[in-house]
Amino acid sequence: MSARILVVDDVDVNVRLLEAKLTIEYYDVLSCNDGATALSLAAEHQPDLILLDVMMPGMDGFETCRRLKAQAETRHIPVVLVTALDGRQDRIRGLEAGADDFLTKPIDDVILFARVKSLTRLKHVMDELREREESGRRLGVDSDGAARLRSEGGRVLIVDDDQRQAEKMAAELSGEHRVTIESDPEAALVAAKGALDLIIVNVAAAGFDGLRIVAQAKSGDARRAPILAVVEPAERPRMVKALELGAADILPRPIDTEELSARVRTQIRRKRYTDFLRQKLDSSMEMAVTDALTGLHNRRYMTGQLQALVGRAAQGGSQVALLVLDIDHFKSVNDSFGHDAGDEVLVEFAVRLATNVRAVDLPCRMGGEEFVVVMPGASLEDAGHVAERIRRDVASAPFRVMGGKEQITITISIGVAATTGDGDTPEGLLKRADEGVYEAKAAGRNKVIAKAA
């Protein structure tokens, strides 16, 4: 099934009609007749879209929508209110309750499926990001997105050649948001490359092709900014096309300023939540390959990179060298000064290590006091020179710990190895470099030993 849709209506005939239309298009349909059951089904089945009738006995559609959007487990599900009402106050009330759009009875099938496709596409993106967020939460990473659902202070670009209409929208929005108006399509696309929370495009513009602006924005640098398309209600094909091209919402002309403000708040709130989830995803990915204490790459990252580089070298690619570095007598630092001081030594050592390798090298912490530097394109001799530079820098000045109250002299033992031909493996390279470390320690420590194959 392409998506799961929950239909909520107290009239069975209406439910069966929508079920039939959606099922023919291969959607998986759930249904119920009241708001309380809708809340339960939405939490349990996590539909991709809810088509919610407004006029229901007991809990009406407005209240049901409000409760759906108030719950963390259902607030991300798009809600379309289905109503026989077509009044301005009802639309604004629904938007303030959190509804994503409206369908007016009798339902226009073309508009129905355009909205379903647009909103389920958005939901699938949100689901992927939320799954990553949940993974982070299970790992103990703070990922509370509720605090990020602010809807004010947005950066809004209005693309419109109707000056009076554009200024009317800007005047309404400028109390809450930072608004820029562009009437030239080329200038608008340049402006869209900036950091924006929303783009409002008049697709009924006389002086340019508004649909082309939507298409170019969604395929370019501004593709993450939602687009609110201003349309003539009578121009159904243009309205549908705007949604197909990626517009997140539709605003009919003549523009009602309260409806404009409500739709803008909804889009900016969703954009910021999506940005928050993406930021968490980026942070989680970084944490997966970064050592939390030193900020260097971790063993997992080193293993993957070394495997790829040694594999390429074995097939005739550039040589790869490896340094294994071990801090001498590190246990005595922890025993004498405590583990906090030991951590300070590790952090300072990581700084000295990172500042003495080449820009292309990959300094990593293997664990404890053991570090590795992967050196793409370096020979055994080149790596030996870098290792000696690191050794001298570490030994040249004491490490300050405990707020500068104590100074500790630190030395390191380094083993060096490099690939030589077809038989090289990451394990073999690491073993040779490890043997160099053992020999350096046996020879009195504070030494660099290069191990040829």
TrEMBL record:
Its UniProt entry gives the catalysed reaction(s) as: 2 GTP = 3',3'-c-di-GMP + 2 diphosphate
Q: What is an example of a Pfam family matching this protein?
A: GGDEF
Give the modified residues of type 4-aspartylphosphate: D53
Q: Which GO terms describe its biological process?
A: cell adhesion involved in single-species biofilm formation; negative regulation of bacterial-type flagellum-dependent cell motility; phosphorelay signal transduction system
Tell me the GO molecular function terms. diguanylate cyclase activity
One GO term describing the cellular component: plasma membrane
InterPro entries attached here? Answer: CheY-like_superfamily, Diguanylate_Cyclase, GGDEF_dom, Nucleotide_cyclase, Rev_trsase/Diguanyl_cyclase, Sig_transdc_resp-reg_receiver
Keyword flag Phosphoprotein: yes
Alphabetized PROSITE patterns for the sequence: GGDEF, RESPONSE_REGULATORY
Q: Where is the GGDEF domain?
A: 318-453
The record's section on Gene3D superfamilies has: 3.30.70.270, 3.40.50.2300
| Enzyme Commission identifier(s) | 2.7.7.65
Which keywords, in A-to-Z order, does the entry hold? Phosphoprotein
Q: Which residues form the Response regulatory domain?
A: 4-120, 155-268
Enumerate the PANTHER family for this protein: DIGUANYLATE CYCLASE DGCM-RELATED (PTHR45138:SF9), REGULATORY COMPONENTS OF SENSORY TRANSDUCTION SYSTEM (PTHR45138)
Protein name, per record:
diguanylate cyclase
Query: Per the UniProt entry, what species is this protein from, by scientific name?
Result: Brevundimonas intermedia
